[in-house]
Amino acid sequence: MITPMAEPPTNIREMSHDDLSLVSDIERRSYEFPWSHGVFRDCLLAGYQCLALIRDERVSGYAILSVAAGEAHILNLCVDPEFRSLGYGERLLDELLYRARSASVREIFLEVRPSNERAIALYRKKGFHKIAARPAYYQAHDGREDASVLAKKLVIER
User: Fold this and answer.
1) Does domain 10-153 have CATH number 3.40.630.30?
2) What pTM, to 2 d.p., does this model score?
């Protein structure tokens, strides 16, 4: 009988400036129009909640959350293509939702490409629903692609 190998342990921690080259590398391998290293640096400098998912002592995913005025905005959530379909995206999203609730956020928003069906399926699973579209929001090879704006009401944990 063959015993399946256990997944190595993972943890989520605050992203640091030392993580930016790995985060930028994952971003470049994940998207045709990636965020630049400078955008990630600016998110850290702005004080956004920037998280890194660590697997085998290496950054394998990341997420960025902006919190202000009683609402939150998921700016980026990505898992290294090598480690997708292992539940890491859901773990990162759960952590963002926890942090938003802990900050007394009442509603959380995000934009997603309508063509990103896997991400949309995860967001729907977690209770997000489409509230609007942003025309020509994303860069695309043939011009621009719209964004679906998703939202979720949060129950504040006390």
Assistant:
1) yes
2) 0.91
